[in-house]
Amino acid sequence: MRSISRNGVWDVHALENLEEAANLLNSGEEFVLGLPINMVLAQRLRLPTVDPQDFPEMVRIQVEKSFPYSPDEVTTDYEIIEQTESDSVISAVAVHNERLSEMAAPLLLRGHIPSQVTVYAAQRAATHAAEGRALLIYPEGEKLISAISENGKLSLTRTLDAREPEQLQRDLPQLTLSAELQGINSLFPSVLLDETCLSLRDTVESLFAQRPELVGLEMPPAPVKLNLLPEQWKQQRVQLLRRAEWRQRLLWAGAAYGAALVLFFAYVFAIRLMVGSLDKRVARDASEVAFIKETEATWKALAPAIYPRYYPVEVLLHLLESLPNQNVRITAYKQSARQIQVEGEAPSAALAYEFAENIKKNRDLRAFAFEMGSPRILPNDHAQFRLEAKPK
User: Fold this and answer.
1) What is the pLDDT of residues 135-159, one digit of tens each?
2) Residues 323-327: contacts with CB within 8 Å, 24+ apart?
């Protein structure tokens, strides 16, 4: 899905993949890439309150314990859910850079680098539940996502394999149990259900004893702090911006040649004067040219009656001479002053094509331009062909 704001009106496009999104983007256009849950590792961490500059390193160390990759292969970021003097509750997310590059390949191949890479679930949570706890249920592809947010930040996410009410009745209690084990109160003041999952509304209501609120597509989604843009992408984006700046400078440099353009236009004006003079001479000779063209057309019209090479009998004779063998037959022949049509049948398509090549090589038929379409194969495996020709 892609949303574009034009003059305050959001234009929403439903797209099948990033290939289609890449075709819609313009060079240098800023956009945000929201990742699905299955692309990231999301964790709720409780860390001691320290200097904010130390949080990134502490989060990285915790992520290393869960991700089977080296730190250089992973991009991490975090948001503070709540903070006291002693403890801080952190929403941490991480993505494997190689997997991210594979997913975003259609964008990268066209030189489109996002200004921010975030998590779509975080965008939805920030939009619909900026304060307090909330449970958000929505689809991502064929899967169903259940996400718990606190103050608009992701706390816990689960991917449900099925959308059936019976499966939901089994999976959601496990989610609430996991939330309790992580210190999250499972009494949610707000339960949000995507409007495309309306059939699950009664099931969710029976589990949480409250009517879920239906939510639609965010236009636009609320901004979030999370940014999983890899360092390599940041450098590439800086290079693209620099190229854009140089392009702008070149445009300004081009303006300096405006004086040369004035001289060019003066030259064009002089050429037009010369062309006008030639047009007058052409108009003066127009009657003679018309007489010559008319005479030429007359001779061309009389050619079939004057020159033997245009006689139908002569043409048909040369066509018969070009037959590869006696099994190739001409079944229909039509000739007018402007066109010749030859229809026939050959034991195979190869013989039909050989007949067409023989015609083109026949010196007595060079006055015509013969063309043959693909032969039609008959039930008896014979090939029915048709040639058309016009005088050269």
Assistant:
1) 999 998 888 999 999 999 999 998 8
2) 323/355, 323/358, 324/351, 324/354, 324/355, 324/358, 325/351, 327/351
